[in-house]
Amino acid sequence: PGGGRLVGLQTREATSADQVLEWMKQGAARRNVSATQMNDVSSRSHAIAILRLADSDELNCPCTSLFMVDLAGSERVAR
């Protein structure tokens, strides 16, 4: 109840910053965009990226998570 579904969800493991940037570019290319009254190019889909950083030298080390969210239609917010 109240659950949603994440279309196109992918999980990747990266060993370099270049890999992370490449996957972010691929994700951005898959988003739906169109023109609006306020923007020539506006995302029509939400995007969520979670970057988890961990020390690969330690098995039980704590990790840090960075959540990045881009909501479609945010140009409707009053300026």
Report on the structure:
The protein is of the alpha+beta class and about 80 residues long. The chain contains one helix and four strands, in the order αββββ. The protein has one helix spanning about 15-30; strands spanning about 35, 40-45, 45-55, 65-70. The strands form two sheets. A two-stranded antiparallel sheet has the order 1-2. The protein is elongated, with a radius of gyration of 16 Å. The chain starts with 16 loop residues before the first helix and ends in a 9-residue tail after the last strand.
Largest beta-sheet characterization: 2 strands, antiparallel
Beta-strand portion reads 15-25%
Structural class by sheet pairing and helices: alpha+beta
Number of helices: 1
* Shape label: elongated
For the largest sheet, list the strands in their spatial order. 1-2
Q: Which runs of at least 5 residues are low in confidence (pLDDT < 50)? A: none
Ends: how far apart?
35 Å
| Rg result | 16 Å
Average pLDDT rating: 77
The portion of residues assigned to helices is: 10-25%
- Give the strand tally: 4
| Succession of helices and strands | HEEEE
